[in-house]
Amino acid sequence: MDHDALSTLIGAAVGGCEIARTELTEAHLPDEPQWPTEDDDAGSVAAAQEPTVQVSRPSVDQPTMRFPLAAVLSAPSTQEPLRSSPVRSAPNAGGSGHATPGVSKAGSGGSGGPSGENAGGKSHGAIGPEVGQPRAVPVRIEPKNDQTRVVPRPEQRTAELSVPPAKTARVDQLPHLEQSWFDQTVRPDPQPAPPPRARPEPSRPEQTKRVDQLQAQAPPRQEPQRPEQPRPVPPPRQEPRDLPVTGYEEEPEDRLADEPKKSRKPLLVVLSLLVVAALAGATVYAVNELGGAEAIETRPPAAPANVQPLVKAVTAGGQAPTPAGVQRALTGPAGNSALGTLTGSVIDPAGGTPLWQQGDTTPATPASSLKILTAAAALLSLEKTDQLSTKVVQGAEPGTVVIVGGGDPTISGAPGKSVYPGAATLDDLVGQVKAKGPVTKVQFDLTRYTGEALGPQWESVDIAGGSVAPIVPFMLDGGRIDQSNVNGARTGSPGQAAADAFAQRIGAPGATAGTAPAGGQVLGEIKSAPVEQLVDNMMQISDNVLTEAIAREIAIKTGGEPSFAGGVKAVRDVLTKNGFDLTGANFVDGSGLSATNKIPAKLLTDVLTTAAKPTLDDARTAKLRPLLTALPVAGGSGTLAGRYGGTAAPGKGWVRAKTGTLTGVNALAGVVVDVDGRVLVFSFMSASNRNPETEVRPALDVLAAALRGCGCS
């Protein structure tokens, strides 16, 4: 067979197939490509009636020519990796067949559009935009004896898809809840379409195939199902009739649809908790593995802090003052008329040199500055750790107890309100006695002291004024009615009031005076603060009752009578024994409350000079050192806390002194550090009728402050 004859035969075959194609039934996309098999004759009912083309087989001795199957079916292109790409729907004629949403299918009859825009079928070759060329029709080639029969296969109805060369398009089932431009209805062709043919449409398979899968004969790719999330449906887009099919590198919009933005805060919280848990676990593991508590306990202690004392030690190394220098410094302040009759002295304790004297040997009323003598005698005669003991013993009758006063006036009747630091409490004593058994009767024994309860020339109005109370060996809070008020009113019967408070708390009737039996069983006991602390307390708040109690303890210690007279004698005896000259000293109590007391200023400066010596070579100095710290600080503590303002301010913090105040009498005695670093001892006593609050006391403060500013060399 020559070449021209073969071409004519092929053209006739193609034309016949095209004619037969118009009568083919509409079909869905098959699941697999339908290639010629030996069983196809049985499945094709209309095969005998279809137009056929007879092609003569060449004989064995004739030249053989291969039949160009590419003219009918073309292999799919594999030049690029398969990818999804935007597609466009060909302008198909209207038909009654089922169409995938957004993709129009051609009907089975009529052309319904411009030349070449017929309904599309599946393409097993490269799909191009040349829609004006006739497409190859699927055929079946059957060898039969000496001839080959070309039988057109029934056309499978497909959608016309135009895609760029070497690109594939997805036409699989799209999500029904996410609309993309695939889902939008293609605008119908303005040309009227022929009426659809009334043909039953076979059911469409649930799962469709992608064109590239059919071309490659590969099983369909299983796409992961997306979680269905309700989304607002956007309004239909006005797309152009022909969508661009070239130049796209990104995925179609159905793949790039915006997912709802989820908050990352829960994720961050979870991650944070996981990190914390991991760190905690690592810490526990490290502690357990590295020794646990033992490792912590064996850690070396931190280095001790380097403490730098703020108080500079005072020595005798400073510039020594001279009498002329001190005289210049005190001339002006000592001449203040508000001071009235002024006596006093100033001494350098480093060498005992007198620096200033004015009537220093003339006896004058010291008022409370006399307490310096009582405190010195106590420190020189009593052990600093001695305590005053109050006991309760079994009485002569069953259920009877006797309170034995031990000379402690600081017992606290209301804990937390006492003006005496470290005081014992009545509640403690009551609790001890209750533990021994029931009490039906309370007595109190005040026989420790003798003599009058009030000192000579004491005035009873001073009891209500808060200056004093009758001196008895058993009382609460120094006889104060208001335990926390230093200068508050006191009771006239402090022993009875204290015993009644005990009886009430222990559940017995009111107490009565009595005497403790000798050798009675001790049911309870409380003790005061040490003597050194008691001395400090009496000097700070200038407590007259506590001072008189200490004077009596000095008398008891030295074998004297525990009374006013006995206390005075004991103080004088102790001071004289320790080398102090008491010439001209005449006093009747230990507190200085009596206006008849007279002592020279020199006696006060002599005692303070011994306590302030720079060395401890003198045994007396070691015992008297606490006397210096017991003195109130100017502008800082005790009876000097509210003083040293105005022109006396330079002495604030540098002056330490004991005050003394009576009607028409004011005194100030203590120590001061001058600007050269030297300690100076002074004592000033004034007899003046001027206002003590606004004139006399401020004038005394200026005197001591002048010593502070003295560069008296």
UniProtKB/TrEMBL annotation:
<feature type="compositionally biased region" description="Polar residues">
    <location>
        <begin position="51"/>
        <end position="62"/>
    </location>
</feature>
<dbReference type="InterPro" id="IPR012338">
    <property type="entry name" value="Beta-lactam/transpept-like"/>
</dbReference>
<feature type="compositionally biased region" description="Basic and acidic residues">
    <location>
        <begin position="141"/>
        <end position="158"/>
    </location>
</feature>
<comment type="similarity">
    <text>Belongs to the peptidase S13 family.</text>
</comment>
<dbReference type="InterPro" id="IPR000667">
    <property type="entry name" value="Peptidase_S13"/>
</dbReference>
<feature type="compositionally biased region" description="Gly residues">
    <location>
        <begin position="107"/>
        <end position="123"/>
    </location>
</feature>
<protein>
    <recommendedName>
        <fullName>D-alanyl-D-alanine carboxypeptidase / D-alanyl-D-alanine-endopeptidase (Penicillin-binding protein 4)</fullName>
    </recommendedName>
</protein>
<keyword id="KW-0378">Hydrolase</keyword>
<feature type="region of interest" description="Disordered">
    <location>
        <begin position="26"/>
        <end position="260"/>
    </location>
</feature>
<feature type="compositionally biased region" description="Basic and acidic residues">
    <location>
        <begin position="198"/>
        <end position="212"/>
    </location>
</feature>
<dbReference type="Pfam" id="PF02113">
    <property type="entry name" value="Peptidase_S13"/>
</dbReference>
